[in-house]
Amino acid sequence: MAEQEVVLGHEQPGREESTVGQLVIFFMALVVSTLIASAVCVLFVADLGNLTNLESVVSIMGPCLLFAWLCTYLPRVLRCCPPDASLGKRSDDIPKLDRDFIAPSRKAASMLAFAAGLMLLFGVCSFLFQVARFQPFFLDISPSPLAAEDEQALKPGDKFRECTNCPDMVVIPGGKFKMGSPADQFGHKNSEGPPHEVTIGQRFAVGKFELTVNEWNACAAHGGCRPLDYLSLDFILSSLRGGLSGREPASSLSWDNAQQYVAWIVKVTGKPYRLLTEAEWEYAARGGKTTAYFWGDEIGKENANCTGCRGELSRIGVEEVGRFKANAFGLHDMHGNVAEWVEDCSHERYVGNPPIDGSAWTAEGNCDLRVIRGGSWYDNPPDLRSAARISQDKSRFANTTIGFRISRTLTP
Q: Which of 280, 279, 294 is nearest to 328 (CA)?
């Protein structure tokens, strides 16, 4: 009888300790799985912003709770892990109920560590593969400049490319348009007024897409541009999502970097490439329309890449160029994805002597700051309007929201 009391007295604390141990394992597994699930959602789920707060919590916490429960109780229910042999020597110190629990809980902890290590290994390998894929021997730049007669024969809408891994160019017709926005347009800022008429006298060529990672890397691989920052957050996240295709817009580039690329492509092709002027950019973005965006006055869904206009298939961050429909001139992503440097110096408003012929406005302004147009994946819909404009330090290494597209003067 006395022995039974001892045994019973010994087992009861064991049950309490075992329950505490189970709770510790459960909450450890819940924390680890929540961190992993949150990372997976950021890296692989298109856009959590499309979900309500409740849907976001349920989508993350539901599987995590199930995972934590399995880690805590399943090994014990299945009795798939025999008690650790080393525990046998301590049988007098540890209750049997706890000994039966410790071994499977160690197994569960090992499984968690293995899963975390596997994710880390996958991320490192994916990152290294992306870096290796953009080395010089993959990027040809064989030039094929247009002959004079071919250039003169180009018509609006025609496309051409003048070197391997150089941008596709689209011919834009000359024309007139009203630059700026009226005071009653949603999102209007003082910097967009007063509206004034601009006449672009002759056709010119514009990049069909924003300059891509592959196109920038071709310049960097052959000594014309600085390499992209492979340690940038955007590059690392893209690597973990499955990698860059090379058709994403090049970003984290200053205005000075854009000029490096322009100088390089001029040298390779012998042709007069340049950045667009601010007037040319707005004219090209509008595509002959007077609305806030080329498709209308409402941002809608799946028309561009920005905060508040993504669809279910979109992801947070840059998208491959050309994913969204082109405007009437055949240009993609003039609204959103990355904002774009133009040639002009910064002016607070269109007062003084803004050019009315489409040329760059470099007089009377602050040329340490240069104009950025189009808005980005991070910006809200008003910042994507055709008339929206901001300025930034031209020498500053910009973040992942800013890139550029190039233009080319054509022989009349």
A: 294
Q: What is the DSSP letter of 326?
A: P
E strand or H helix at 200: strand 196-200
Distance, CA of 201 to CA of 358 (rounded, Å): 8
Peptide bond between residue 194 and the one before it cis (omega within 30 degrees of 0): yes
- The Cα–Cα gap between 369 and 201 comes to 27
Taking the C-alpha atoms of residue 75 and residue 26, their distance in angstroms, rounded to an integer, is: 13
DSSP letter for 264, please. Answer: H
pLDDT in tens, 310-340: 776 566 788 899 999 999 999 999 999 999 9
Q: Please, what is the Cα angle at 214 between 167 and 236, to 5 degrees?
A: 140
User: For residue range 178-232, what is the model confidence (pLDDT) as tens digits?
Assistant: 999 999 999 999 999 999 999 999 999 999 999 998 899 899 888 899 887 655 5
- Stretch (H or E) spanning 234: helix 233-241
Residue 83 has a CB neighbour count (10 Å cut-off) of 17
pLDDT one-digit tens code per residue, 18-33:
555 566 666 666 666 6
- Cα–Cα nearest to 158, from 176, 136, 173: 173
